[in-house]
Amino acid sequence: MQMTMSCAEESRAFGESLAGSFKPADTFYLIESNLPDYGGWGGGAVKAASRSGEFAPILRHLQLTPRAKILFIRRPQGDAKNFYIALTNQAEPRIYHVALAEYADLLDLDIASLRGQGAPRIGDREMTEIDELYTVCTNGRHDPCCAVYGAPVFQALADYAGADRVWQTTHIGGHRMAATLIAFPAGIVYGHLDPHDVESLVMNHRAGFMLTHKYRGRGCYAGQELDEAAHLAAGAAEAVIREKTGKYGLKDLLLSAVSDFGDGQRRVVFSDGNGSCYDAKVGTSLSAPRQTSCGDEPKPMPQHDVRLMTTS
Predict the structure, then answer these.
(1) Residue 230 and residue 253: Cα distance in Å, rounded?
(2) Which residues constitute the domain of residue 16?
């Protein structure tokens, strides 16, 4: 009998490139809930909760935020109402926390306050800034690979970084790249993670560095208004430029510009803040059909060819 690989096994076996595979988001909303009134974390948990029930008006309110991404989070045996906001489109990205009395309190979130320098406000309450948080996709009802690969990474992170800094989350995107994780406050997205990657990831994150060989992209690039295709191209270029230059510190490189030449060709420029610029040409095309989710029909996916052109 012919054996069929899972989508994550296939992605790893073919050495699929990770960089440039995470779509843009400026603001992340993380809401603790097991969604008991919705039958738990289904395949499309956020979409289902947006249509009807207690969360529908709340999610509609949060979705007024430009380029927002909403995730439900949980921990084993957890039953509180923790809420986080991560602002990744900042020169200094930030993440804030509050314990809610009721989910309906989120209707009082002052979305305009997210654009200021102070902490976000929910009614008359000011949220508290924290230093770090990790969310691992374990949404096995969306794709079994998220549970198979995500659950061991979640446990390894809880053991190493501290259980209060780690959450399971609903679908991040790109489940064939499981285990996939977002490291906040910078909103750095990683994929193809295994438990043995956890120590290195946390140590580098706390020191202000990234792991380029596991890097999928960022939530957003500060100060840039990029469409999805340009954002993905920038993520692909960033990984190559960092590997070629050895500039692994998050503040070592800043995105300067993305120029669209048409036909899937873009010029991406990063600067190091000291007068040096790194210029890459990124060609984006569609791959041969591949399994993007277990049980789905294969389909082509964007792939990036990055060439470092000049250093000045």
Answers:
(1) 17
(2) 1-225
